[in-house]
Amino acid sequence: MTQTQQxxxxxDALVRAFGRHDTDAYFASFAPQATFLFHTLPQxxxxxxxxxxxxxxxEREADFRVIRCESSDxxxxxxxxxxxxxxxxxxxxxxxxxxxxxxxRETIVFQRDADxxxxxxxxxxxxxxxx
Length: 131
Fold this sequence. Notes:
The protein is α+β, with helices and mostly antiparallel strands. It has 3 helices and 5 strands; from the N terminus they run H-H-E-H-E-E-E-E. It has a single domain (3-127), classed as Nuclear Transport Factor 2, Chain: A (Roll). Helix content is 29%, strand content 48%. The chain has a 5-stranded mixed β-sheet with strand order 1-5-4-3-2.
């Protein structure tokens, strides 16, 4: 299996876990030192634990749930040993019991860890401009 396919498999696992609101599997897809830039937050999150705390706040305060997530327009670009995965994300979430459809684009940077697993070390999410 090529390294590109390994990265695509890691991205698929991350998206599947997110899409079924499996927080343990989802957060296990990220390295502890991963950073996050989301258009919905005013600040950068500087660790997986910081993101998980924000996520738990969404769950607690707004009954946040991911209903489903689909990835398309996928590409892997190599920069040295790092893989830049970009895609379009169509997600349905529930906030306070009301479903919302989101169309965004995302970049996830993957690197191998000491156990040779491809883990996300950075995620950047932005809204997809209207066509």
